[in-house]
């Protein structure tokens, strides 16, 4: 399996990854996070070059909201059911702050990413920011969730 790539600055990422992170950052403006004030944006790069964004959508009745990654993934598949998702970038920011804050995919999003990988039979690279403010490029959802639940588990 490919290794994780860790870089210290956004500028050290490849051009496609930088663009995806910037699109995910733009999506933060549309996050609905009145309860946590923790806004998350995601962007998915499709194999036809399209970029689909998503942002977290909270709800007063926890856990009825939805994470940014899942919004982007479900939107991508709804709009382009026959296109492969190549990469997903995740960004986060606390309301009122100008800098991005570290955030990685939650367990539910890792599971959904794994399902998409299995469905399309190709890995999805995931770009996110570590607690040390470094950018991580994970080669696949499987690398983030090595013992994930799949159809073989049923």
Structural features, described:
This protein has 154 residues and is an alpha+beta fold. The chain has a single domain (5-146), classed as Cytidine Deaminase, domain 2, CATH 3.40.140. The chain is 28% helix and 23% strand. The chain contains 4 helices and 6 strands. The chain has helices at 15-27, 68-79, 107-120, 141-144, and strands at residues 5-7, 38-46, 51-55, 85-94, 125-129, 135-138. A 6-stranded mixed β-sheet has the order 1-6-5-4-2-3. The longest helix has 14 residues, at 107-120. This is Cytidine deaminase.
Tell me the major beta sheet: 6 strands, mixed
Sequence stretches where pLDDT stays below 50 over 5 or more residues: none
Count every helix, treating DSSP H or I runs of 4 or more residues as helices.
Answer: 4
Instruction: From the 3D structure, determine the CATH topology.
Output: Cytidine Deaminase, domain 2
Secondary-structure-based class equals alpha+beta
Secondary-structure element series: EHEEHEHEEH
Strand-residue fraction? 15-25%
CATH architecture level-2 label:
3-Layer(aba) Sandwich
- Main CATH class: Alpha Beta
Instruction: Walk across the major sheet and give the strand order.
Output: 1-6-5-4-2-3
- What's the CATH superfamily, by name? Cytidine Deaminase, domain 2
Q: Please give the alpha-carbon distance between the first and last residues.
A: 25 Å
Count of extended strands: 6
Helix content: 25-40%
The value of Rg in angstroms is: 15 Å
Query: What is the global morphology?
Result: globular
Count of spatially separate domains: 1
What oligomeric state do these chains adopt?
Answer: single chain
What's the mean pLDDT score?
96
GO molecular function: cytidine deaminase activity; zinc ion binding
GO cellular component, one term: cytosol
Protein name: Cytidine deaminase
Organism: Ohtaekwangia koreensis
């Amino acid at each position: 399996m490919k290794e994780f790539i860790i870089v210290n600055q956004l500028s050290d990422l490849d051009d496609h990854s930088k663009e995806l992170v910037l699109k995910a950052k733009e999506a933060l403006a549309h996050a609905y996070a009145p309860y946590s004030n923790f806004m998350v944006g995601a962007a998915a790069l499709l194999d036809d070059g399209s970029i689909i964004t998503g942002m977290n959508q909270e709800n007063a009745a926890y856990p009825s909201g939805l994470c940014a990654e899942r919004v982007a993934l479900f939107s991508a598949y709804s709009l382009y059911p026959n296109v492969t998702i190549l990469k997903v970038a995740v960004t986060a920011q606390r309301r009122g702050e100008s800098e991005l804050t570290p955030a990685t995919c939650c367990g539910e999003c890792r599971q959904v990413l794994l399902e998409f990988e299995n469905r399309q039979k190709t890995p999805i690279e995931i770009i996110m920011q570590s607690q040390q403010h470094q950018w991580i490029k994970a080669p696949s959802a499987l690398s983030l969730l090595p013992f994930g639940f799949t159809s073989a588990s049923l």
